[in-house]
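Justification of resources, computational component.

The compute hours requested in this renewal are based largely on the per-chain cost of generating structure records like the one below. Each record pairs the submitted sequence with a full structure-token output. That output is archived, and it is also reused by downstream analysis tasks.
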Amino acid sequence: MPKTRRLAIAIALVCALTAVAAPGTAFADPAPTPSATAPAQPRTLDEVSRQIDDLYRQAAAATDAYNLAEEQTKEQSAMIVRLAQDIVKGQEKIKRLKDQAGATARMQYRNGGLPPGAQMMLSGDPDAFLTGADALRQGQQAAQGLLGELDRTQAELAAYSKDATAQWQNLEANRVKKGAAKKDITEKIAAAEKLQSQLKEEERERLAELERKKEFDSQTAWLSTGVLKEINGSASEQGRKAVKFATDQIGKKYVWGAAGPDTFDCSGLTSQAWLAAGHPVPRTSQEQWARLPHVAIKDMRPGDLVIYFADATHVGMYIGDGAIVHAPRPGRNVTITGAGSMPILGVVRPDK
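The structure output for this chain reads:
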């Protein structure tokens, strides 16, 4: 059996052994009569499965929004620090320039209050007059340069202050976005967990079987296209390092917004893996899809990132043999699954 198909077939066999293809089982609605604004309560395990998937997908989208706002907040905070440092330097420079101007004024006072030109005209020594004329010209140029530099520094200081104000406003806006996203995430996860908690033990087991079957059917359909016959690329040196980091995290818990070392969300895992490989990538799956080079599925190689769903709200790392390593969702751990077990949006390559 060709080596490139071993893991894919193993995944399919595991899924097949645990999948049950029976229709959804009805269960009693344990919740009170829903209000007019609440969503209708599902009546079958199939409906429960779909609703839970939808809630976790919404939580994933909100997690991407939270992570993006978090990254922008870090960037803006760093920018504010740099601007504050520039402002301090500018203020110190202005003080030095003003001190120089003050020294010139004090020298003029010591010379009887007469400007240098008047003192020179009163001199009866031709050589002293010529020497003074040259010194006067140089002094005028120096004074003009001093005033020009003072004006430029003051303009720069005003620009720094304006930029700092804008960054503070952006920072506050992102804090609001983070707060809204966090509320959305926690609400969606709580709703999904509540649905699961209302199930009986046998219903929870059946629900898990339905989920495994769904992944199995999707992976089987993907493999049936013969896609693995075309996917035979070798990992780059950085790609091998990224794969090693990601697979070393198998078994660690999914936690939204986490990027290690003990817990991860989906893009936290992939971004940290490539950071460990010496090639930083964007933090969120949506930014990874938007900013990294795209490659065809048939050309993907281990280390490439597989982006899922139309809104790019999930990502896994291709490890070869038709499989990915990923952090699935709340309540799950970092694991290996079939690359085709979810709807593929496309593939990106960090080190292209």
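The longest strand covers residues 314-320. Confidence is low (pLDDT under 50) at residues 1-38.
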